[in-house]
């Protein structure tokens, strides 16, 4: 994070946000790393800078950034003349980039619908079908919501 007097307050805010994300099911160390990147001036840090900012080992950072890369929240950027890479947030905000590229709701809709097809008529089948319908709703609505958000950001 930055070396200014606001750093402790930013670190506290990042930690609090990461705790909320972890409580919602996001892995804790990747959440902490993500919020450290969000709170950094450049939106990019080396593994060593992340380890220092978070007060954790290089191994903890390695696992966290690997996870964040897998889900599309960060990408690795080579530094010319250095063997150290920086981990950076996408050009678009990470949440927009992730939702635009994430087919998880479509897959969950298909899986829920397949489950509903296998169940006999009754409450369980109705719940599975409603789950499929909800995920299909999200699949249809997220692109429009993201377009609205982009318009508001530019607004």
UniProtKB/TrEMBL annotation:
Keywords: DNA-binding, Transcription, Transcription regulation. Residues 25-84 form the HTH marR-type domain. GO terms for molecular function: DNA binding; DNA-binding transcription factor activity. The keyword Transcription applies. This is HTH marR-type domain-containing protein. It comes from Sinomonas atrocyanea.
